[in-house]
Amino acid sequence: MTNKIDLEAAKPPTLAQPDDPDLITWTNPNDPENPQNWPKSTKWKNTWTISLFVFISPISSSMIAPAMKDLGESLHMHSDFEVYLSMAIFILAYAIGPIFFGPASELYGRVRLLQVSNLWYTAWNLGCGFAQTKGQLFAFRFLAGIGGSAPLAIGGGAISDMWTADERGKAMGVYTLGPLLGPVLGPIAGGFIAQYSTWRWVFWSTSAAAVVVLIIGFVYLRECHPGTILRKRCERLVKETANPNLHTEEKAETFATKLLHAFSRPILLFTTQPIIFAMALYMAYLFGTTYLMFATFPEIWTEFYKETPSVAGLNYLSIAIGSFIGLFLQLKLIDRTYHTLKRRNNGTATPEFRMPSLFIGSVLSTIGLFWYAWSIGRTHWIMPNIGALVYTAGTISCLQGMQTYIVDSYQTYAASALAACAVLRSLAGFGFPLFAPYMYDSLGYGWGTSVLAFVAIAIGWTAPVFFWVFGERLRGASRFAAG
């Protein structure tokens, strides 16, 4: 809390100061260039375009799951660890990229980084389809993951740029759906590719989709970072007026100093802010459990229920349906609950009003895990699917509640705060699938998944209550939190 690293460089612009005629900022509260004053149609167009960038990369993270057996045989992988690593190493890169992309977007804008990173991801993902050795595949997958991590780090901050706290719930719902729905739809297509074509088309097809997203971004994506917009305004006015003294509220710093401050910010927030640390811990657990489920899904349906790879891939629809149900519940409940609590609090809103959705989601995800655990191989194939559906609906509710709470609490540094959470979350997404075979060999699917459910109770049922009671006090003690 007393760290001397200066975090004020990214402070959002305020109204012009009368004692500084050279200060370039918003001309008035209704300045049309301010993203929060954009027409709603423009905001939604930008939000949906950003969600496409967030959607395309996670497809690659799990689309390979149904084809992992064929890929392992083709590239001479000799252990389950290596086979699962071919999927998980992509997620490992998610733990590294956000450290740079999140804060860099606060310095240089959202659009440029989204487009460049997507191009980087597309090139290396295409290379995965041409890999001739397992070493090449691991290296190309990791490099593709670096580029693919950028939208996940930047998206939350971009949402906070455009939407006020009262409007943010639905927009965050659309944004949250991408990282959860992408890994679900990928394996469905991957199952058919694994059965009727070669694993290489898993990478070639996702690269083609990424090119389409890149083109859509060039057409519809609009810069929404306030600091970047004002810097461009300042540069334009310097040329028009020939006044070199014009400036924005950002401090004059060298490039190296800016990078040091920006890249230190996620680490500093993670290590000094209990809110971010606790949310990151639970987010990581849910993310890891979800990817563990993605990795083991094909084996369940092909071994216990004797389905072909293409039919087995269709079971991922239960997770997709659960994602839509979770999003629908959020769109109906989160903003309504938020506004109800705000009215009861004399019109004053606090980030803690997001906690009811987190608690409901935690209960649902735990019920889904127990249901899923004890129905595998013991009941009709529809029962594990229902358990996965309930778990996913609860998970998207939790992720929605946590991400919106973080954005509300750390508005100025939303991208850096979410990047800090993304590091631990991605490490869990990388590690959980690797220990899954050993856990299930020792405990079986029933008790193995039940252990995950018991941990979810310990974390997910207590955290919302804790932050409901102590959240305001923690934010009040922080010099980085909003207000």
UniProtKB/TrEMBL annotation:
Residues 46-475 form the Major facilitator superfamily (MFS) profile domain. Residues 1-40 are annotated as: Disordered. The chain crosses the membrane at residues 48-68, 83-101, 113-132, 138-160, 172-195, 201-221, 267-294, 314-334, 355-374, 380-401, 413-435, 447-470. The keyword Transmembrane applies. SUPFAM superfamilies: MFS general substrate transporter. It comes from the Eukaryota. It is found in: Membrane. This is MFS transporter.
